[in-house]
């Protein structure tokens, strides 16, 4: 069975344009079949974009970037340099195109988890984890993000309450000095780990 985190989607390409408004701005991005949330900005990603606090002009990592809405919005509004990692090659190509379209300084890397950014550090790491891939896939990203944060940096993670929010928060508390729930909406929770 194919999932949005499959390396190379087998489903035929069917590009479309998605429009969404976040942070007081309207955006348009290209999406395609075989990628996460191809028809609209999902509510978890919306909460992540609107709730995360990133430093103006900072350097952020969009981990599991999909077609790039987090990087497009925060890169545009907060003038951030965006690094994006995505395992799905089709989604990574879309992310690159969408960041180019919005003139966001960026680097898009195809790969799994934090491996492609080894040795790099960021002001913030942002993650809407691939829940269907399983904890064995994304829990190491929670722990590993620590070594990719600048002093004072934060990991921002959004998760649906009924898809393991409590256990994800407990996992964050095992690895970070301070963890707080900073927002909740439409069944989602946003956590900040420092």
Q: Any idea what the radius of gyration is?
A: 15 Å
Shape category: globular
Give the low-confidence spans. none
Helix content: 25-40%
* Arrangement of strands in the largest sheet: 5-4-3-6-7-9-8
Class derived from helix and strand content:
alpha/beta
Number of domains: 1
Question: What does the main sheet amount to?
Answer: 7 strands, mixed
CATH superfamily: Vaccinia Virus protein VP39
The fold-level CATH name is Rossmann fold
Count of distinct strands: 9
CATH C-level label: Alpha Beta
**Distance N terminus to C terminus?**
37 Å
* Pattern of helices and strands: EEHEHEHEEHEHEE
Descriptive notes:
This protein is an alpha/beta fold. It has helices spanning 43-51, 69-77, 89-101, 135-144, 165-175; strands at 16-22, 25-31, 59-63, 81-86, 106-110, 122-127, 149-160, 179-185, 188-193. The N and C termini lie far apart (37 Å).
Describe how the helices and strands are arranged.
Layout: E1 16-22, E2 25-31, H1 43-51, E3 59-63, H2 69-77, E4 81-86, H3 89-101, E5 106-110, E6 122-127, H4 135-144, E7 149-160, H5 165-175, E8 179-185, E9 188-193
Parallel strand pairs: 3-4, 3-6, 4-5, 6-7
Antiparallel strand pairs: 1-2, 7-9, 8-9
